[in-house]
Amino acid sequence: MKIVKYFLLLLLLGIISLAVFILTQSGNFNVHKKITIDAPQQTVFEYLQDLDNWSDWTASSLTQNNIYNIELDNIGVFKIKKEYSHPYDSLSQDILHDQIISNIFWKLKPNKNKTDIEFRFQGTLDLKTKIITFFKGTPNQIVSKEIEKNLNALVVFFMKQYKEFDIETQEVHTLDDTHYIYFQKNSSIQNLNKDILEEINNLKNFCLQNKLTINGNPIIVLNDQKISNSINCLFALPITETIFLNEDEIYKTGNIVTTNLLYFKTILKGNYTHLGIAMTESQRAIERKSNINLISGYPTIMQLDTSVLQNKYPAEWKTQIYIPVQEKSITETEEQI
Asked: What is the C-alpha to C-alpha distance for residues 218 and 222, in angstroms, rounded to an integer?
C-alpha cells in the first residue's frame, strides 16, 4: 500500500512539475513566410486590404466595429483589425487582446505580372492552446504549419479567380439601336472592376432619382478596338426615356445607331485583365472569315451580363463583346478566292 501511495505521489509531483514547466514556457511566436501570387501587385494589395475578402481562403468573420475573428485550426481565434497600409507596398493588421505587441504584416513586391509577398505573423498562444499543443512542437512550429496551409489556399484562390478564363468567339450578329446615359472616364485594365462598381452604381442612383427606366444590362462603350493599360470608357446604362441634361451635368446621353451595321460577338468568362486577349482572338477570328472585315469609326460594345456588380468572384464574370464589322465586297471576296 505504501508503494502505491509513493507511486501516486511521484505521479502527482510529475504532473505538477510538467504543468509548471509548460506554464513557464514562452507562448510567443514569430512566423515568416514567402509566397508568390499570380496577379499584379495592385490587385493583390487591394484584395488583402479588404478584410471581408479573407473568408475566401481562411476562416474569418466580421464581429463588430470593423473587428474580425480569424480562426486557425489547432490554435484558436485571433481578433484583428486594420492597422496601417502603404499602397501598394505593404499593409498590416493588429492582433487585439494579446499579451504582447502583435500583428500580421504583408510586404509586396512586383515580379513581372506576379507579386512576391513576405508575410509575418507575430503573436502569442493563450494558456489553453499552450497546454493542448505542448507535445506537438514549439509555438513557431505549430503556428507555421497552420499559416502555411492558409497561405497556400490564398495562392490557389488567386490562381482560380484571376488566371482561369474562357474566350468563345462566335458569329456575326445585329444589335438594336440603344439610347443610353453614360459617364466618361479614363480607366485601366487593373482598375476596370472598381470603376464599373463605382460608376454604374452612381448611374443607377441617378436614374432612380430622376425616374428613368433602365432597359437592359450595363454596357461599356469603347471608341478604340485596342485594349491597352489606359482605356477611355463610356460607362453606360440603356434607358427608355429621352432626357435633356445641362452642359455642366457630369452625365451625358448617347445613342448606338446600328442601322446597316454588323457586330462580331465574343464572350469572355473571367477577369477583365483578359480583355486584351479576347480582343486579339476576336480580331484573328474576323480575319479568318471570308465574308467580313473589321470596320473603323464605330465603337466596340461590351455588355456586362455578370460582373462585379453582382458577383465578387472574377472567374464567374461574363462579358459579351461586340466588335463592328462589315461584309466584304464582291471584289474582295473574289481576290481571296
From this structure: 13
- What residues pair up with 265 in beta bridges, in sequence order? 322
DSSP 136: G
Closest Cα to residue 216, out of 133, 295, 304?
A: 304
CATH number of 26-163: 3.30.530.20
Structurally, at CATH architecture level, domain 167-336 sits in Alpha-Beta Barrel (3.20)
Q: Cβ neighbours of residue 143 under 8 Å, at least 6 residues apart?
A: 29, 31, 72, 75, 121, 123, 125
Residue 231, classed as helix, strand or coil, is strand
Q: Is the pTM of this model over 0.85?
A: no
- Boundaries of every domain in the chain: 26-163, 167-336
Strands 300-306 and 292-294 come out as unpaired
Q: pLDDT 10s per residue in the chain (337 long)?
A: 666 665 555 555 555 554 554 454 556 788 999 999 998 898 899 999 999 999 999 999 998 888 999 988 877 788 999 998 999 999 999 988 655 557 899 999 999 889 999 999 987 776 555 555 555 567 778 888 889 999 999 999 999 998 899 999 999 999 999 999 999 999 988 889 999 999 999 999 999 999 999 999 999 999 877 777 788 999 999 999 988 888 888 999 999 888 888 999 999 999 998 999 999 999 999 999 888 899 888 999 999 999 999 999 999 999 999 999 998 865 554 454 4
Take residue 204 and report the three cell numbers written for it.
443607377
